[in-house]
Amino acid sequence: MKKKKDNRVLIISLIILAVLLCIYYRKPLGDFIVKCRDNAIVLHEENKIKREERREARAEKRAQRAAEKEAKRLAREAEKEKEKAGEDGDEAVTSTSAVILDTEELLETRSFSSEELALISQQNGVILTAQDGSRYVTRAFTNEDGNPTMSYMLILESVDGVTFRPTDDIVYSAACTKLFDSPSYINAVKTAGEWEEFKRVGISPDGCYQLVTSDGRILYAYGEYFRRYREDMPLTEAITMPDERVELDVKHIDQNPTLPNGCEITSLAMALNSLGFDVSKETLSDNYLPKAKIGEANFYEEFVGNPRNANAYGCYAGAIVNAANSYLASQGSNLRAVDYTGSSFEDILKIVQSGKPVIVWITYYINDDPGYTTKWWVDGEYLVWKGNLHCVLLKGYDTGKHTVIVDDPTRSTEEYDMTLFIKRFKQFYSQAVVIE
């Protein structure tokens, strides 16, 4: 008890002493505190200046490295241009920088009308072609004032010494792959998702694709990783049409023996003859079907080989459309071949219901899947051929029995299960051609 009392006395004494010292040294202590505060402020400012100097030094080094890198890039470009000029004697200066115009500049310099531009207002990735042949891609963005606006980027036909032939179609990435800001494939700026869609606006001889993304950017990728059609499509479809049987009157034409690989052009011959034209499959094949040598033909637009040869391949809908329209034009007909590729199968059946047969692509052996067989590079485009291909003329259906009726150039009239037929039809990308 006494010990606790002594402690309290000691604490009280120390408190009184501290108060007396503060009273006695009040002015000197205040000066000391002010001086410490001023010194702290000065030290803080000095450290701030040093940090800013270090930040500026780092930024200067980064800028110097970037300038050196850009100088090397420009030197490589100049060397490539010099080599190219020496090879083909072309002294023209090729632009390698992005040209971006606003709406007013585009109206003044590229002969677009305000009505044309209004149609694509605030849309990304629209391709515009000016009267001088130059092409632009649109990109919507928000300017510094927070207002929506548009820019128009020139699609260059030569970038970093790489020349592109102009194209205008859709391709899909067959796998997750990198996209680059130049055909040098150095700076990857985006990874394409599997089966992501792009507009292809250019192809280089060595297989570089010039692509427009959904947000209006122009990027570059290696063509091997892209296809014209996607492979993840559903292979089934519910048909909602009422029960009925339709079978059009089509005279059968056998592709053999003169056209052992002529199922596509023979199907066209049957379609044309059913409309009253008197033309043979040989005449269509020899005079109107676009053809090219194996390894040099693009089967989307021309026949690979020759239908008269047993070792030939075949073609897709585009080549048959070209052949049909060439023949129809020679006859002075107002009819035209229309590519219905990508349509639903029910829509195809409704065309047959209206009285018009439809040229469609399926497998030769209906119970077997198609298979990838041959790959080619043609004019810089990567092409993969699907084997077991066949082409027939769809001339009827029976929704009650759930079957389709076709005229097969190698087997005459066949009736197939509709579900299986739809699967094969979709595996060959729902390709269909109609004369109308």
- What portion of the residues fall into strands of 2 or more residues? 25-35%
Mean pLDDT: 84
Whole-number total of structural domains: 2
Span of the ends, CA to CA: 117 Å
**Rg on CA atoms, Å:** 36 Å
- Tell how many strands the DSSP assignment holds: 24
Q: What class do helices, strands and sheet pairing give? A: alpha+beta
The CATH class of the largest domain turns out to be: Alpha Beta
Instruction: Write down the CATH topology of the largest domain.
Output: Cathepsin B, Chain A
CATH homology superfamily of the largest domain: Cysteine proteinases
Helix count from the secondary structure assignment: 9
- Helical residues, percent: 25-40%
Q: Extract low-pLDDT stretches.
A: 85-96
The CATH architecture of the largest domain comes to: Alpha-Beta Complex
Task: Tell me briefly what this model is.
By secondary structure, the chain is an alpha+beta fold.
Structure, described:
With 436 residues, the chain is an alpha+beta fold. It has two domains: 100-227, no CATH class; 245-435, Cysteine proteinases (Cathepsin B, Chain A), CATH 3.90.70. It is 35% helix and 27% strand. The strands form seven sheets. Strands 14, 17, 18, 21, 22, 23 and 24 form a seven-stranded antiparallel sheet that branches. It has a five-stranded antiparallel sheet with strand order 12-11-10-7-13, with no helix packed on it. Strands 1-4-3-2 form a four-stranded antiparallel sheet. The radius of gyration is 36 Å and the shape is elongated. 26% of the residues are buried.
